[in-house]
Design brief:
With about 500 residues, the protein is mostly helical. Helices cover about 55% and strands about 5% of the residues. α12 crosses α14 and α14 packs across α21. It binds protoporphyrin IX containing FE.
Length: about 500
């Protein structure tokens, strides 16, 4: 018994010493990083560093970074700690341009979780680092041009008619409409069609498998999400997959079946799935203007595998459906609050549609006020409230005297910039005139970043057009907006 008590005592002393040693290390060494570099920073707290408000569920990650930006924005750069890892917020638009564009070679990766072995669907454009990202980005860029968008416009238009019908039915019955859910179903149907070639029809069947999986992906799993975005090394070390196995299996199966169906039935549709299949079969995507009947040489070493193809379809799906459905939801919300803006918008939409004889790709582009309204929505509610990059090689940030070390996480406070009263006076006010040409010209181009910037910006920027279409469709349905206003 006495020996056992002695062992227990010694063991407790060792544990206490280790914990105390770690405490001293974190407090005086790890948390001294930004002080030693003379970088302004909020005081970190053990054990979460700067993430305290996020881990307590009081602020989202984007809001927390915006709060720090608002408090310290006089400084060109601001230090924070993701647990004990130092990360740098870039606060000045000129420096943001330096990171995102001018010195892109030093900051080309996001440094988020990507592990093709444990989690095959994470091998996609958003997460892949270095050469693999560059290869895929170059290959997919032709898929996201205006001419491709025009070819896919038919799907968007067809589905938007179903959306209008669904809204009409709800409105007639004076039912409460969960706008976010309705928009998510609309976007799910569009992207499932163009990325997976599937007619999933979640607008009519809210429990369609694609929609169910969509809900599952965005279920709150705070710890995994924070780690995946800010500290992927922890997940990598413990080999923890970030995507649920059922989701992974579902998407790989759906993608495989779609490819097999198109191949077996010789179906060619000019959509994302077609581009992915071309990359799998030939190693390149044929240019639309290339009418040659002589087949180009297949590039065996550049072909992608079925799993790599599935990962790209997956990112087009998750990248596309929540981003644009949230944007439309917030836009309709603001329209419900501001009937004057809604009326002006409805007038423009009705007039242009009359002129063009209905909804077409060109007519949607000819609606400047709609453009302003959606731009203002993305200012107030940026779907991705902060951008991240990782420093690939030590580099000095001009005008700061700071040499950023390799491996340092970089954060761009998009929400902070968009709600900064020095850049956008009265930031809480919804004012589409901020996107008047003259007002745009007065602002720094890197102070408004809903789609990011530089070579790694959003590949789907064109999708804004499909958001316009959805807002435009609601012109027929003023009733929905007034019902919505009553509920606000
Ligand atoms: C309102 C709609 C959308 C918004 C606001 C949005 C926003 C963004 C932002 C902020 C980024 C990060 C950019 C950066 O780090 O500089 C991004 C990346 C990306 N987005 Fe979007 N997005 C939208 C729609 C879409 C759609 C429809 C797709 C695909 C069909 C898409 C696919 C992607 C992909 C693949 C990336 C990663 C690009 C890369 O790393 O090369 N997005 N998006």
């Amino acid at each position: 018994m006495a020996i056992f008590t002695n062992y227990l005592f010694e063991f407790s002393c060792i544990v206490i010493s280790i914990v105390f040693g770690l405490y001293l290390y974190v407090k005086y060494v790890a948390f001294n990083y930004w002080s030693s570099k003379n970088v302004a920073h909020p005081k970190p707290a053990i054990p979460f560093g700067s993430l305290g408000p996020v881990t307590k569920g009081k602020r989202s990650m984007g809001q927390m970074i915006a709060d720090v930006y608002a408090e310290y924005k006089k400084n060109p750069v601001i230090g924070v700690y993701n647990l004990t890892s130092p990360a740098l917020i870039i606060a000045k638009p000129d420096l943001i341009r330096f990171v995102l564009t001018k010195e892109f070679a030093h900051f080309h990766d996001r440094g988020v979780y990507c592990n093709e072995k444990i989690d095959p669907l994470t091998g996609h454009l958003f997460a892949l680092p270095g050469a693999k990202w560059k290869y895929l980005r170059t290959k997919f860029t032709p898929t996201f041009t205006a001419s491709k968008m025009k070819q896919m416009f038919f799907t968007v238009k067809e589905t938007s008619v179903l959306l209008a019908n669904a809204v009409e039915q709800n409105a007639k019955k004076s039912e409460v409409i969960e706008v976010k859910e309705l928009m998510a179903r609309f976007t799910t149907d569009v992207i499932a069609s163009v990325a997976f070639g599937i007619n999933c029809n979640s607008l009519e069947n809210p429990d369609a498998e694609f929609r169910t999986m969509g809900r599952k992906i965005f279920e709150p799993r705070l710890v995994k999400r924070i780690l995946g975005f800010l500290l992927p090394s922890v997940l990598q070390f413990f080999k923890i997959p970030i995507i649920d196995e059922t989701i992974s299996k579902f998407f790989i199966r759906a993608f495989r079946e779609a490819v097999e169906y198109r191949t077996a039935n010789n179906i060619v549709r000019k959509d994302f799935l077609d581009s992915v299949i071309q990359l799998m079969n030939k190693g390149y995507v044929q240019n639309d203007n290339d009418k040659s009947t002589v087949p180009a040489k297949e590039l065996d070493d550049q072909k992608i595998t079925l799993i790599q193809g599935a990962a790209q379809a997956f990112v087009f799906w998750i990248g596309g459906f929540d981003t644009s459905s949230s944007t439309v939801t917030f836009c309709l919300y603001e329209m419900a609050l501001h009937l004057d803006i809604q009326d002006r918008l409805a007038e423009e939409i009705n007039q242009v549609l009359q002129e063009y004889g209905g909804v077409t790709y060109e007519s949607i582009k000819a609606m400047p006020y709609l453009h302003k309204v959606v731009s203002e929505t993305l200012r107030k509610y940026p779907v991705i409230p902060m951008l991240n990059r990782v420093c690939e090689d030590d580099i000095e940030l001009p005008g700061t005297g700071l040499r950023v070390e390799k491996g340092t996480g970089i954060l761009i406070p998009v929400l902070g910039l968009h709600t900064d009263p020095d850049i956008f006076p009265e930031p809480e006010k919804f004012d589409p005139e901020r996107f008047d040409e003259e007002n745009i010209a007065k602002r720094h181009p890197y102070a408004y970043l809903p789609f990011g910037e530089g070579p790694r910006n959003c590949i789907g920027t064109f999708s804004l057009l499909s958001s316009y279409l959805r807002v435009a469709q609601t012109r027929l349905k003023r009733t929905i907006l007034s019902i919505f206003s009553r509920q606000v």
